[in-house]
Design a protein that fits this description.
Helix content: under 10%
Distance between the termini: 41 Å
Shape: globular
Strand content: over 45%
Structural class: mainly beta
Length: 124
Amino acid sequence: QVHLVESGGGSVQAGGSLRLSCVVSGLPLSSYCAGWIRQNPGEGREGVASTDVDGDTTFSDSVKGRFTIFRDNAKNTLYLQMNNLKPEDTSIYYCATGNCTVLNGIVHLTPRYWGQGTQVAVSA
């Protein structure tokens, strides 16, 4: 059985940083595409960052230059380093694993497994 458990969310002031973690069990993270998706209640999902098994990464325009995605395969853990946070980054962040397609250098994640989400709140 596959489980993804996020942690690291919290409340910060604008300009601050947070690092989200996603511990994966039940599958080898090194063999799967993975990423972070955020969603506020009543709103649509936004793919924030994704990474394929080769280490290629893609970020949404809204976070590019501020967020980094990386994985520690030995720990089977996916991370999202978020710097220079803005109030508009406030959301529930979900990690996900699945399959990737890479088109024109952009990594598109099709999620198959999801975590339960972790709340990030950024105050002005």
